[in-house]
## 1
Amino acid sequence: MSMRRRPAPPGSRVRPQSPVWEHPLVSGCPPGDTPTEAGIAALGRVFAVFDRQDSGCVSYGIQDAGRRLFVKRATTPAAAHGLRRAAHLHRTVSHPALAPFHGEMALPGGTIALVFDWLPGEILYHPAGREALPRHHPDSPHARFRARPTEETLAALDTLYDLHRVVAAAGFIAVDLYDGCLLYDFERAALHVIDLDEYRTGPFANHTDRLPGSTRFMAPEEFTRGARIDQATTVFTLGRCARVLLEEIPDPLAAVIDRATRPDRADRHATVAEFVAAWDAGRLR
């Protein structure tokens, strides 16, 4: 089995703040204005609606002038707060694994919508969709991803980890990262990461009894009130991504994943950069 490491995706970097209203379709709504929801439809023809969400958001696929957009609208104050967090991250970080971000629209009631490029692919797990197949069903995106050649799934994890190396360098901590955030284009073998509404600047203290997330991907401190949440927490989740998504774990990477997912945070890689360096070394063996 080849363990050759793919080169890091081009264009991975932390970028300076960009204007919120930079997209030509969004720029007609200057900051401070509060267009009605009809303003979203005015961006183009709505060809898809995603309203079976548990996040307090409704999303739309919009066709306009030969291009497709993805618009995510908050319907509650809490969801709007999450979209503002996501907008801050997307204005700060540039990476090929993120959907190109075009800006945000102010909506009545203090809520907002974010505008991205539409990306092809399938979400690896969709717990809120009534028609969604369970992970273990052979026709589910999750099972089909695990059944791909090991080198292909490893390359997708390479992309996931390189993204989080950049995200961590910009001062963000992954929260609520799980396979429902992974959009995979099976035809092109391309991974994108979406729905980063819960990512936060850190380190920070866990002021709740449980942070948002899928239990199988979460570190112990995410269930502990007052615990420190930092890059070692992100490392645990990244290690769990490999554990959950790989059908076969190559021997050189098994020790890396084992260290990343240790319950005692002091026994893990201390930073995402340290974890990614160990992963890359294992990929070369």
## 2
Amino acid sequence: MARFRSLQMLSLASTFLFTALTAGAQCPVPEHGAIVANANRPTVADPADITQFGVLEVEYGYEHPNVGPGGQQNNFGGLLKFAVTCNLELRWDMATLLNQRNNGISTTGTGDNWLGFQYRFHRQTRRTPVLAFGYALKFPSASEAKGLGSGRYDHQAKVLVSKDLGGVHFDFNASLFIVGRQGLSGFDHNTELNLAFSHPVYKNLLFTGEFYGDSKLNSSTPAFASALWAFTYAVTPRLIIDAGVDHALTAAAPNRQRYFTGFTYSIKNLYSKR
């Protein structure tokens, strides 16, 4: 029986791999097969379009949030993405190092990890936007004892819409969060709306803005709104760097200001020699 199940699993894996590889024949690619980065940074919203078919891409950055009187953080984290099929992207969002300073007390450790996917089910046309759906599960790898995490599993499901209009690129996300209650059983939930836009300034330099906000999660986490402003620069088609600031629009926002910088880099097309 065990051998039969192993053969079944091998057959399913082979079928999935074959489907992923043959699906590439229908995937549009840039001229001359060039790899072009699909940056999710620096906005909170993600684009509905995914990474190129077969491409492994990494995003990584540093952020310095001011979280209120006496509170500061220095965080490093990133996102690893792989387009396993033409329209399906696997995602690993990681917080590799968190440093929090509150009233003179400093705490350092690793953060939580999110694993998920994004599926694009409609491509952009002249009249219609790109449409996608995403899901992610948070694994509580951050220390609850140090105050770096809740120690609970969280879920995020979101709908993504992207469109180019009059030389401006727009990304809209609507997310549902199901958040484990710290130290308690059960879950709280809230929603998040994001609207990001970008426009070329000069050659490979782009200006990006975003407005976003969350509904009330519970009695200790009220609703808030924030805004983000940033510049991005394409050093090469495969490498994009960014820098900017995120600031609170309402008093309840978790970060009064958040300064950040980072990069997006397309590492390799893993299917290029299939």
